[in-house]
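Open question from group meeting: does this chain pack into something compact, or does most of it stay loose? Before anyone orders reagents, we agreed to write out a predicted structure and look at it together. Recording both the input and the output here so the notebook holds the full record.
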Amino acid sequence: MGQTAGSLPLKRFVNDPREIVRDALEGYLWTHPDVQLLEGYPETKVLVQKSWRRSNGQVAVISGGGSGHEPADVGMIGEGLLTAVVCGEVFAAPSAYAVAQCLEAVTGPAGTLVVVRSNPGTRLNFLSAVKEARSRLQLRIRVVCVADDVASSLKSGDHHRDFKQARGIAGSLLVYKIAGAAAAAGLNLEQVYQETVLAAAAVRTQGVCFTSCTIPGTQTARPLPPDEMEVGLGLHGEPGLRVKATAETSAKEVVETIMSQLGSFVPPKGPLCVMLNNLGTVAQIEMSVVAGQVMRSELGSRIKLFIGPAHLMTALDTNGISISVLPLQDSEEPEEELDEAQGSELSRLGLRAERLLAATSCRHWVPAMMPCQPQSFRAESATRRLQRRSLSGRFPDSEHPVARSLLERACRAVLGAENELNALDAQVADGDLGRSMSNAARLLLSELNSGHLPLVYPGPLFLRIADIMRCVDGMLAALLSVFFGRAGRALMPRRSRPLLHKSSSSHSGLGAYKVHKAHTRRLRSADSGLHRQTAASSSLSLSNACGWQREGVLRAFR
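Structure tokens returned:
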């Protein structure tokens, strides 16, 4: 697993931390046959499209920077995106010599556009290499710097910010895509440059992190306390805009904070493209929650293209997200004119949207999509199905005070023990028992309070409870559904007379149920059936582990 600088165990899939970039690039090439190394590796780490030819008459688009942000930048090589990428060590800018080698290798008569993330080392080395290539080799090269980080922009006056010294972060990927699509469309170098530089000036990004990253072989440079988050933390762990408490912060509040800040840096009207980026270790289920909140934010109605949620530009194991916003039109147009424009919605969105939607051979680029309002398949809810279930019309919904009291007390007890049940389940399983049983209790209470249970009839009542259990997730709900289903069928009477009688006495409990000995025997039979189901399930798990024949185990419990 590798060792840290202090010879402490490193819980990472690493051989030697000093060779991690070399090992990663070689592993990447095994699974990406459309990419190749430029001669001079490993002293220069340059990857190029295998199909690229300088004589093809197309503008080359290159970029690069420190490693550790995968799939960016290496993962963005492909037709319609980047032609080549120059890689540095983890979070370290590649050398000017490596950049110069890349420029000489890929630049043909059509020229090269260099897209540089505006970080001091990267910008210095790339610009130095460009200057040398222009003077020594007379290559046609244009440069676009991307400085999209809101957190590192400087205030230059009231409500204005200067982005000249801002960091270049995830928004650069949108710029890559526009440049690559313009080049693939056959535009000349100046035309590709003009589209790209306008996009770079318009894109804005803001991020938030709960933890910083750890470079393999080192300790976390700036660990964040468990109850804090940092707004605008840099891709390399640089300080962000501010640190704030997270104890009571919801996804809704985090997204609203980010989108509100981004909203102040884009035109007040017009369609937008939003890219939702996972910076490392945020669970996919949480990313979907964030995506929903983005669409419900103050900018949501203007979002016409959505990219993600996905890992696009990461920062190793950072637990955080970034959101990039790019206006799809540079000039503000009245909404009425856009609505009356001829053609499809795509043509109304403009050329920038067309570039973002253009095809690419790059496997790691996530295609932009037009978001739509969540749709529902028209079907009855579980509660409605339960309400309409009628056991041949023979057993109407009915009231019985003792049965109601017993069910209410049982449900309240389950609700009160939710956390305890979760804790007990977590010791041997996934810790969701309390939650699933509480869901069952709430659904049963809802049916009870709506008067939709045949409380006077034990058999039909148990069958209805079995139905409720079938609507609840989890294994115990399934077992309880088997039990109540068997019990209900065992207690079904031959005639439709009530088997539960309202007792005039003040005592409660099973004494209120006048159940015949035959019904007791049937309940025992149902209980034994439940035991057979449970034993069969446990034995099947054991048989899988031991290699026993499945059918033989099933026959033993029939």
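Observations to bring back to the group:
The chain is about 40% helix and 15% strand.
The longest strand covers residues 319-327.
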